[in-house]
Structure formats: C-alpha cells, structure tokens
Amino acid sequence: MKFTIDEATEKLTYAQVLELLQGDRKEKERGIEALGMMGGRRAISKLISVLEKEDYVTRLKAVDALSRLGKGAVPALIEALEKGLWYVRECAALALGKIGDLRALEPLSERLRDENVGVRQAAASALTKLFSSDKLAKVLQGMEPEGANRMAELASRLDPQLGERVKGALSGNRGPEADKVLKSFRKAVKKATPKDEERRD
C-alpha cells in the first residue's frame, strides 16, 4: 500500500479506501471503517456492495459501519432488505435493528415471512430492538388498552417473543403518532401473514 499503517483512518481519501478494499481482510476492514466515518451516498453505496461481495466476517464489519451512519443509510438498507440476496437481506436487517429508525418497522415485519431462516431471525431480532427502543416507546406511550392489546396480538402472530416486547413497550400517556404506527404495523402484518391464517381470524 502507498500509506503507512499508522496513517489516521479518518484522513484517508476515497481513492485510498477503494485501494484498501482490494487488499487482505485487515485492509478491507480498515477501508470499511473509513467508509463508516466518511458517510454520504457514495460511502453507503460502497458498503452495500461489501454486503453483496464479501465473506461473512467482513459483511458484519460493514453492518457496523452502516449502523454508525444512522438514518442516512436507512433508505438504502430498506432497498437491500427488499431486493438483495438472502445474506444481503440478513445483514440489512441487522443494520436496521442497530439503527432503530421507525421507517424500518413495516419492511422488517414483512421479512418475518422471508423464505430464508437467517433473514427471518435477523428481522425478528431487529424488530425486538426496535420495540424496546426509547424512540418507539415514546411514540406508543399511552396507546389505549384496546389498541395496545391488538398490536401485541398482531406481533405475537408473527413471533411470540416480539409480542411480549410490544406489550412491554406500550405504557404511559398517549403519543400523537401511535395510531400511525399501529396502522403501519397492521398493514405489515397483513402482508406478512399467509392467506390461510387470515381466513381463520
């Protein structure tokens, strides 16, 4: 490489990062870390491509980098969650769970019926984190008992532990966005539930 190992990662140029991503695992991980510091659409796009092309350990490094980028990475991660290969969908779900943005609520709920078990598990884990987050708790605070019970019931149909998490998230004084979140979640559950289950209701 043209730069020394002690050169500050945050000072690397984009061209240097691309060079690192062509190196060995250690160099790739440093390049991924630098992308997580850089941010922006170019860095997000390159990190998504890492999810598509690299081994499992390296993909997890990209998940951490994407989660550090926060809400700016959410649209690209949702797209990857919906359209990517199974291991890309799995990593996208993990990253969305770490970020905790409520825009991921519906797409993650739909992945609970993914054909791949790893994706389903990652989506369930991400939703559990989302429902235990302070952000969602504030949105759902004080939802009327009937609405709260219905939301927990819907969650339980998809994942029993998720249902328990929802029950725990619903308390306090009613939040202004509660109905909006409940409507979105109902829509997601309807999409994620097989037709034969819907008919038994």
CATH structural architecture of the domain at 1-101: Alpha Horseshoe
From the spread of the alpha carbons, the general shape counts as elongated
**What is the H-and-E element order?**
HHHHHHHHHHHHH
What is the overall number of helices? Answer: 13
Low-confidence blocks of residues = 1-6, 193-201
CATH superfamily of the domain at 1-101, by name, is Leucine-rich Repeat Variant
Summarize the structure in words.
- The chain has a domain at 1-101: Alpha Horseshoe (Leucine-rich Repeat Variant), CATH 1.25.10.10.
- Helices cover 73% and strands 0% of the residues.
- Mean pLDDT is 77; it is low at 1-6 and 193-201.
- The chain is built from 13 helices and no strands.
- The protein is mostly helical and 201 residues long.
What's the SSE blueprint?
Elements: H1 14-20, H2 25-38, H3 40-53, H4 56-69, H5 74-83, H6 86-99, H7 105-110, H8 117-132, H9 134-140, H10 145-158, H11 160-169, H12 178-192, H13 195-200
Short description:
With 201 residues, this protein is an all-alpha fold. It contains 13 helices and no strands.
Which properties best describe this structure?
201 residues, 13 helices, mainly alpha, disordered C terminus, elongated, Leucine-rich Repeat Variant, 0% strand
